[in-house]
């Protein structure tokens, strides 16, 4: 019995002793470097999931509180760089966590790895993020990975939707470019010729979107694959739906559109007109079948007064991914000596995530040693999810996301 009680404390199921001891020890911080200004829904969802994981582990480990610290980069890569530089000198910053945007991570991947900043990625999907060019790799992702997502979407388009003349509508960023490459490879494997590729900038206006819609209809596409976040996605979807051509082109989208208020700006009548579907991961708060996962959801409701049902959760994948990823990090911390200097703790966290036996029954899946030491001949070493964890989703008439079953 004595050994069993000790195990419960170590696993974080009994949190009270750590909370009592944490008063005289400095907290450890996870800096959430996300866009709380323009994409608040996804950023808050990530924060909510990470916080839930921390609370489920007793809020402290070895007497040190674990705290989420917001640092809003507002979608600006230069501001994100300043946040990384500030983190480097922090005496309490243990790790950073990103939001919906890939460009800040792509722009500063070299800086992150050179400065040995453990960076947790529960949403941003661009393929190169976790694939360092040098020997050091401090970025860990539990999310969709575009090196696989583009293949998944193109396979679904060709094999399930039977597309023979797809068009690609991609934002003009590193995220869009990585999807151009992988979708192109996917369609090539399916012996499907892409009819047209159109790129667009962040902040696109309605008139510009109308011109893009005209180009796509003129290209005789039978399907549009869209890579956009919610703001630009809403403008483009509305333009495609309101084009005078009577037969509308269906749209298969990346999941960026789910990170904001897209479902409020684009009504069900428009979404259904274009038969809009998008990539997701396999767990969905609106389709919980496991008793264990239902208990996690009940805990989420108890700790967040604004949530009374699954339909109140905005950007649910941000919650589930951040919950699973933060839980894995907390398990890694339990085997570490947290009295070391902060720079040593960051290095040790990377080592523990890569080498310690870590098992966790999460929301998306059950994990067994989800990360490995990174090598160029093992490009998925810092990817916790695989193709088998992806799904296709859609917005219901009631504006909730459901997965195609």
TrEMBL record:
**Keyword Lipid metabolism applies:** no
Entry keyword Nuclease: no
- The protein's name is Amino acid/amide ABC transporter substrate-binding protein, HAAT family
Please report which protein family the annotation says this sequence is part of. Belongs to the leucine-binding protein family.
Tell me the lineage of the source organism. Bacteria, Pseudomonadati, Bdellovibrionota, Oligoflexia, Oligoflexales
Coiled coil, from the record: none
The Leucine-binding protein domain extends over: 39-336
The alphabetical list of record keywords is: Signal
The highest taxon in the source lineage is Bacteria
């Amino acid at each position: 019995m004595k050994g069993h009680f000790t195990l419960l404390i170590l696993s974080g199921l009994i949190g009270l002793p750590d909370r009592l001891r944490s008063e005289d020890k400095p907290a450890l911080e996870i800096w959430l470097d996300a866009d709380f200004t323009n994409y608040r829904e996804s950023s808050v969802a990530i924060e909510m999931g990470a916080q839930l994981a921390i609370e489920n582990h007793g809020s402290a480990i070895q007497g040190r509180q674990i705290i989420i610290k917001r640092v809003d980069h507002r979608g600006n890569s230069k501001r994100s760089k300043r946040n990384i530089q500030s983190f480097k000198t922090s005496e309490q910053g243990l790790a950073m966590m990103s939001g919906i945007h890939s460009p800040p991570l792509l722009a500063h991947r070299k800086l992150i790895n050179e400065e040995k900043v453990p960076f947790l990625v529960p949403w941003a999907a661009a393929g190169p993020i976790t694939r360092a060019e040098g020997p050091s790799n401090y970025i860990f992702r539990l999310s969709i990975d575009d090196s696989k997502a583009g293949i998944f979407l193109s396979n679904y388009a060709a094999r399930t939707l039977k597309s023979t003349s797809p068009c690609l509508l991609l934002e003009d960023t590193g995220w869009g470019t990585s999807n151009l490459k992988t979708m192109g490879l996917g369609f090539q494997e399916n012996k499907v010729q892409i009819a047209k590729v159109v790129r667009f900038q962040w902040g696109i206006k309605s008139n510009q979107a109308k011109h893009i819609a005209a180009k796509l209809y003129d290209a005789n596409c039978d399907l549009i694959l869209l890579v956009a976040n919610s703001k630009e996605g809403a403008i483009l979807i509305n333009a495609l739906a309101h084009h005078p051509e009577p037969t509308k082109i269906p749209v298969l989208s990346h999941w960026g559109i789910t990170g904001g208020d897209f479902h409020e700006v684009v009504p069900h009548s428009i979404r259904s007109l274009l038969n809009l579907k998008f990539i997701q991961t396999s767990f969905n708060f609106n389709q919980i079948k496991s008793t264990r996962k239902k208990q996690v959801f009940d805990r989420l409701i108890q700790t967040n007064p604004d949530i009374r049902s699954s339909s109140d959760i905005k950007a649910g994948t941000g919650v589930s991914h951040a919950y699973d990823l933060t839980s894995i990090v907390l398990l890694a911390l339990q085997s570490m000596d947290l009295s070391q200097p902060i720079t040593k703790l960051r290095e040790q966290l990377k080592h523990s995530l890569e080498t310690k036996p870590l098992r966790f029954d999460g929301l998306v899946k059950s994990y067994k040693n989800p990360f490995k030491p990174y090598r160029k001949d093992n490009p998925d070493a810092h990817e916790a999810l695989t193709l088998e964890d992806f799904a296709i989703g859609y917005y219901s008439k009631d504006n909730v996301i459901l997965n195609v079953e």
